[in-house]
Amino acid sequence: MSQHTDEHDRDLLDWLVGSEGADGNRDAAPHADCDTCRARWEELQDQEAALKAAGTDLRRVVERAEKLRDLDVGVPGEEHVEVFFAARLKPERFTVRLRAGLAAAALLAIAATLWLRGAVPPGPTTDRPSTDLLGGSESVRIRPRSPVGSVPRYVAFAWDGTLPPEWTATIHVFDGNSGAESEPVDVSRPLLSSPWLPTHARTSPWPDHIRWEIQLHDGSDRVRLTVSASASRSSH
Amino acid sequence: MNQAPETESARADVRLVRDSLRGRRRAIATLVERMHCIPRMLSAKNRDLAHPLTAPELEDLVQETLMAVWRKLPTYDGRARLETWTYSFCLFEILHYLRARSRRPAHLSDAHLVPANGTASADESDHIDHEQVHASLERLEPADADVVRLKHFEDCTFREVSQRLDLPVNTVKTRYYRALEKMRGGLTPQPRPGAKV
Questions:
Q1: Which of the residues B43, B136, B167 would you substitute to probe the A interface, choosing the one with the greatest number of A C-beta atoms within 10 Å?
Q2: What letter does residue B152 receive in the DSSP assignment?
Q3: Distance from C-alpha of B81 to C-alpha of B77, rounded to nearest angstrom
Q4: Are B50 and B114 in contact (CB under 8 A)?
């Protein structure tokens, strides 16, 4: 029977962390003739087993959850997520960028007023055309890809084109036989990229003929572009 | 004590939560997309437990878990990946519900924790309370808990942990040992009810 020492503690640490490679004997406690070492060694084994099992459990569940997402398998309660956060997380109406823009516009207005009154001499003129809302470097081209025309089911709502940074898209689904001013039958959550994959349970009650719109919102939540397409479902 | 999350993905997750709470539209969209993991993880865990919960019960649990996550969201510090952090809520809610439903409120029969497929990993885990592991990690120094999470939840070697945290390998190993020292007594497997001890 040996006395537990600081050296034993160091050896326990070495045993614990030095065994990832092939070297090191995991099956034997260092200083097996020391009661403290043996008890601590057994406890460390239990702790590592518990942590390993919890890690395995976590990775297994997360992996399965990701598989469900990739396969677009509907699960109970998923519709609550959007409803829950929509009620609690409200997009801010005035972002820093918008506030800066408003401030700059106010300064320009003051400068223009002063210039008109002759208080400020006119600056150099330019023939550069004013930036189009969606022109120049901000050009955004979005084209609905699917569903368009006759389709067996409404599955993926996809489009071609990439959103600028900070922008989001929402899909609005309308009854294709109703007028232009009608209310949408469904609206997606804000999306960062194509496609939107509503569940079958969600699309099932929709009309067999729909018009769907992609609304693009900038970082200030303003609608900057809307494009639409129509589709007809041949089977439920 | 180091309070800042140490990996880039953790910092990104903290920014995501912070920006969502500030109302940044794109962050909200991303967060909501990520939070769809809650119903999926609950369904996956229910399958793991051999389907003790019905679809309406799972729906109720999704709402309970969402509420629990929402209450704690402002305190999310990026110590674990958002999904990993969320999983501890899912696990707590599902086990809490099963305990409450059972006639034995003090302890859920461990038989409920046996994965349905009965694999080797099930043998390892069938008498270990994973919830207790998550709770123990919450009580650790964040810097020490980071090492344990990366090692066991993300299955990293010590060298990979050192690269992820940008720390010397020896520091990582010392933190790991220190963490297990502090978790003493909290993770010892409990014998299954009725099992021979």
A1: B43
A2: I
A3: 10
A4: yes
